[in-house]
Amino acid sequence: MPLLPPRALTNGTFFNGRLKISQEDLGYRYSLDAVLLASYAAPRKKDRIIDLGTGCGVISLLMAYRYPKIKIYGVEIQKELARIADLNARQNRLKDRIIIICQDMLALRAEQISGPVDLVVCNPPYRRAASGRINPDYQRAVARHEIKITLDGVIDTARRTLRTAGRFVIIYPVERLADLIEALRKKGLEPKSLCMIHSDSKSRAKLILLEAVSQGRPGLKADSPIYIYKDNGCYSTEMQKMFEP
Question: Is 41 within 8 Å of 166 (Cβ atoms)?
């Protein structure tokens, strides 16, 4: 896919204006999924991290702001999104800790990331390539459907870039949970914890957050569910905390 002419950018902020995030006005735009994943991943001090399919870099930016000693490699196949991710790292003075790599994650080499990492995070395409309506906007189509990468490809990349006992954290639809767990275990990534995400207390969970450990022992625990909204339509207390510094 050739690099398209630059489109207009919009500018948003997190953490009372301390973190600035630019993204395309009409192309792919991040959602609450990114905020949820960045919070649940909970990097450890001095972790080295890969953010697969980084998009505009929002997950990397949120984690780098909260954890000042981590280093993140954001991998993005779409050139224009990679350019914006790099812009966001620079405008937030995080270029020394967020390194954007523009390429297919399946071709990622160990020397590009200075060896195995401690944590891999990913907000991958949720839908199979042949399922549902494909968005006419190419950026959005690639982000939502398995056009450029499949679930197996994401998991294979995580497995070969993680150190032993390294963590892989993903956000994914509940309806594909069985596929996810089966694929993880085939690649030697053992599911260790999961969290159901509900829109509110009256709705069924549509998404899950899941953490797997490379070469980990069997044993899966369920964390308390996350409710995005209170019954009055306002963000829940837990969700509000994710937007705080």
Answer: no
Look at residue 4 and tell me if it is in a domain.
Answer: no
The tokens for 153 are 């490809």
pLDDT band at 17 (very low <50, low <70, confident <90, very high): very high
- What stretch of H or E contains 66? helix 58-66
Segment 129-178, tens digit of pLDDT: 555 565 555 555 444 545 468 999 999 999 999 999 999 999 999 999 99
- In angstroms, what CA-CA distances link 76 with 98, 174, 195, 239? 13, 25, 26, 27
pLDDT at residue 166, rounded to an integer:
98
Domain of 225 in residue numbering reads as 9-242
100: which strand partners?
74
Directed axis angle between helix 32-41 and helix 58-66, to 10°? 40
Distant-in-sequence, close-in-space partners of 203: CB < 8 Å, separation ≥ 6 = none
Which residue reads 């409710």 in tokens?
Answer: 227
Q: How many domains, in total, are found in the chain?
A: 1
Tell me the residue length of the chain.
245
Q: Which long-range contacts (CB under 8 A, 24 or more apart) does 180-188 make?
A: 180/151, 180/210, 181/210, 183/151, 183/152, 183/155, 184/155, 184/212, 187/155, 187/156, 187/158, 187/159, 188/159, 188/214, 188/215
Specify the CATH number for the domain of residue 168: 3.40.50.150
| Domain assignment present for 183 | yes
The reply to whether 2 falls in a domain is no
Q: Is residue 1 part of a domain?
A: no
Q: How far apart are CA 212 and CA 64, in angstroms?
A: 21
Under 8 Å between Cβ of 89 and 101: no
